[in-house]
Amino acid sequence: MASFALKVTQFGFSTLGLVSPKAAGVLAFSLFCRTPSRRPWAPKAQATFKAGAELLARAERAILQTSSGTIAAYRLVSLKERAPRVLVVHGWGSRAEFLAGLAAGIHQAGSEVVLIDLPGHGRSSGRLLNMRIAAEAIAAAQGHFGPFDGVVGHSFGGASVMTAAGGIFADVAALDPGKFVLIGAPSEIQGIFNGFAEHLKLTIPVRRALIAHAERVLGRTVDAFDTVPIAQRLARPVLVIHAEDDKEVSVDHARRFLERDIPAQVLWANGYGHRRIVSAPEVISNVVGFLMESDVVTDSAA
After folding, report:
1. Are 243 and 268 in contact (CB under 8 A)?
2. Quick one: which of 51, 75, 109, 133 has the fewest CB in 10 Å?
3. What is the rounded distance in angstroms from the CA atom of residue 141 to the CA atom of residue 66?
4. Given a cut of 60, is residue 296 above it in pLDDT?
C-alpha cells in the first residue's frame, strides 16, 4: 500500500476496532484474502511475463471449475510414453507465466508439466484467495490432469500444495504426489497473520477477532496449516529451496524443516531473494534433478 493509503487504512481499522473488534476482524480477513492487481506494472515484471507467455504459447489450455469459479490451466505435453507428471503452482500476486521458465526446464527433462493460475490470479476468476480456495483449485487440477508424480510450489503456492496434500478439508480431495518442491514458501501462517496485523497496526482484540473469523471461514484452526507436521506425517521426499536474503518470506520458514524427522533436503539459493529464485538456472537444475531422482547439489541438507 502507498504510505497515505496505508495510514488511512490503519486509521480506519483503529476506529472500527474501538467500536467493534469483531467487525474489524471480519473486514481485516476480507482484506487479507483479497488478491492484488493481475497486471505486472514494473518493466522487469513485464519482460518476465512476456517471456513466460511465449513459453506457454505452445501449451494446451483448459478451464477447470470449482465452487469459487473458473481455473485456468496449462499443460506442456511430453512426447515420452509414461512421462512423469508434475504440477507447478505460483505464489501470491503471481501467475503461471512467471513460473514458465521453471516449468519449461522440467518439461525439457522429459516430464509432462501442468501449471494453474490460482483463483484471483492470471486468467482464473475471482478476487479472493485463501487456503481452502487454493486447495479446491489444486484438487480440480489433480482431478483433470492427475495423478501427479511431483508438485512444485513457490511462496503461497508451496504452502498451498502442502496444505492440499495434508487433506485437512474433509470435502476436498487430498493432493497425492510422490515428491514436493517448496520454493520460498511459508511453512506456517500464524506468522503471516502476525505480519499482516503489524502492517495494519491492528489492536490485540482485532487480531484475535481476525484469527477467530479466519478459523470459522476455513473450518480449521490456524495450527492445522502448519506444513512441517504435514510433511512429517506424509513422509515423502521434500526439497525446500530458500534464499537467506528473502525479504518477503523469512528463511526461518525453511529452517523449520531441519528441526523435524522429515525426508527433506534444504537448498540455500542465496542472492536470488524471493522472486528471482524461481528462474535461477541452478535452482531449476536442482528441481529437475530432484524430480528426476538425480543428486541434488546443496550445501545444507537435513
Report:
1. yes
2. 51
3. 10
4. no
